[in-house]
Amino acid sequence: MPNEAQTLTANDAGVAVPRSAGRRTSPLLWVPTGYFTMALAYVMLTNVTAIMFKNLGMDNGRAAEYASYLILAYTIKPLFAPFVEMYRTKKFFVLWTQVILAAGFGCVALAMSLPGYMAIMVALFILLSFIGATQDIAADGVYVTSLDTRSQSLYCGIQSLSWNVGPIVASGGLVYLSGWLHTNTFHHDAGTFGPAWIDSWRIIFFIVAGVTLAMAAWHLKTMPDGAKAENAPSSVADAWFILKDSFVTFFQKRDVWLMIGFGFLFRLSIGLLEKIGPFFMVDPVAKGGLGLSNEQLGLFYGTYGLVAVLIGSLLGGMFVAKRGLKPTLFLLCCAVNIPNVTFLLMAMFQPTDVYVISAGVAIEKFFYGFGSVGFMIYLMQQLAPGKYTTTHYAFGTGLMGLCMMVTGLVSGHLQQLLGYVNYFWFVMAATIPSFLVTWFAPFHHKEG
Prior knowledge:
The chain has 448 residues and is an all-alpha fold. It contains 19 helices and two strands. The chain has a two-stranded antiparallel sheet with strand order 1-2. The longest helix has 37 residues, at 149-185. The relative contact order is 0.16. Keywords: Membrane, Transmembrane, Transmembrane helix, Transport.
């Protein structure tokens, strides 16, 4: 029987290989921080930038569109996956991408002082989106190849919870702080959008840079290397061959188009809400919004929303672990999509009571956290298994990114065309494809 330092794990080819020698660390030391760091970079680039663009004076259509373009790198990240297998270890890529992200966010903060800062920032954001996508591939690879199927299910609730903390910290805590700094430190008018917001957002990006660098230092000590695929490429030519082979084998999977539809459509309504939800809350009442400040927006997302999503993710993981994914997947889809009606109700009645608004946010976040667990487990256990586990898992998360990008590109323009009430009716109608693909989602692999 292998000792602790030689426990076997399955690599991308499905072959058992020994984990790296040395003392094993508990997944609780690196799974939460790893997925939080992934989410922090992703949300800062694709969501918080939209709020920042709006603060700087852009309309909803352009702010949502520009931020959504940054999802492209996350959508095509399967193209990077074979190259992550070529050099060193998956941990090596995690560490260096986090160091580069920290430096890049620091450069964004410094660029805000330069003439033509907007073009410089957008260029930096595009570069950082590709670095962030590479971090995702490597970190997912560590998770998938360091944990067996049973452990993946066991820790998936923690994984989903930790990832969901990232959006709450970024879209909640950091957005709150941007508003507080804007009004209390720099003494600017909270209701006026324009270049005056640069002062507070510069500090926010310095904070993100510091946190990301600290996470890299932590993962240097706690994260395992991750198993290397038996057929890892030794040259660029080999990498392109493997990439081609990974595409071929992916589309040879049984019922692959149903799984692709699931990966793209499961969170369709969430994609339509992702950018517009915060815009709705900060837009003036006269424009159909709720007229909240950045502080209030961050407070509702970062307090009640944070507690709700954490509880929802934990309970969702426990629920799936107890009852299994197949019998619960449609219920989890309902949990993700039906509570979006809270935005429709708030748009119709435009409540001013902070308790009503915070309750609407908490309800939506709780059920989103609860249901999202099923999506990630499905990708890991039904879509990813095979010869190229890491790459095929990246295909699945890339489909999710494609959905977020496509919906983000059109959401701001649609909202301006329809108004908030009609737009949120459209969001509810967009839940129908999610229910259909979930009902017909195939299960061909035994659950852990």
